[in-house]
Every structure is written in C-alpha cells, then in structure tokens.
Amino acid sequence: MKLKTLLIIITLLSASLLMSCKKEIVVEPSTLKVRYELTTNSPFVTDPAYVSLNTFSFVKDANMSEETVTNLTGKSWIKEFSIENKRNIILGFGGNFLLQGISGTCNAKIYVNGVLKAENNQSASIPISGMTSTGVSIQWANQ
Fold this sequence. Notes:
Helix content: 10-25%
Largest sheet: 5 strands, antiparallel
Distance between the termini: 57 Å
Number of strands: 9
Strand order of the largest sheet: 3-2-5-9-8
Shape: elongated
CATH topology: Immunoglobulin-like
CATH class: Mainly Beta
Low-confidence stretches: none
Order of helices and strands: HEEEEEEEEE
C-alpha cells in the first residue's frame, strides 16, 4: 500500500512539474500604434521669410517612407498613426527648425503602443536676429 501511495505522489509531482514548465506563448500585435511628440519652450517661427529653414521629417510606415512637416506652429508637434508590426523597422523623426527668442529647448519622444521607447532633449544657443536655430534627431528600432 505504501508503494502505491508513493507512486501516486511521484506521478502527481511529475505532472505538476511539467505543467509549471509550460512555456507561455506571447502573441505580438499585428500593428504598432506610434506617437511622435516634440515640445519646445518657445514657439516655432512661422514668419514666411524663415519657414523654409524648418526642415523637419518623420518615418511614417514600415517601409521607412518619410514625410516632411512644413506647418510647425505653437510649441508642440504630435503625430499619431498605426503601422504594420515588422521586425527591423526604424522609427524616428528629426530636422532643424527656428524657435522664437534667443535660447530654446526641445524634447522629443517616441511612444509605441503607449510605452515610451525613446527620448531626446536638446538645448539651442545659436541666436539669429531674435530667433534660435535648433535641431533634434530621435529614433527607435523594432528588432
């Protein structure tokens, strides 16, 4: 009787050990929700004589196609979109722009599915006729 009880206990322990080692399968979403954010402490320069100096672009899809931004206004720029979830894609944005005032700072962020993946802070100190020239570059790779 003791041998039978011992065999049952060993069988139950073996089964529970095998169940606890079961690998959890993680299913990745088929699309990524991307959010680019750029905030500054001073407004972007919108004077038509200088707007052409605002050269700013971002990666907009899984094929790494770029789009240029020409309408920077206020103190922030936000772009949200969804792309196909592929490996080895690089998301990012950057460029040069003018801020009003003689100094400026900017903060760039990339969120993927609501999680902050990259952040870059820049300070500008190149005053030009009451404006500040600055730039930012940020990227994140899905590997």
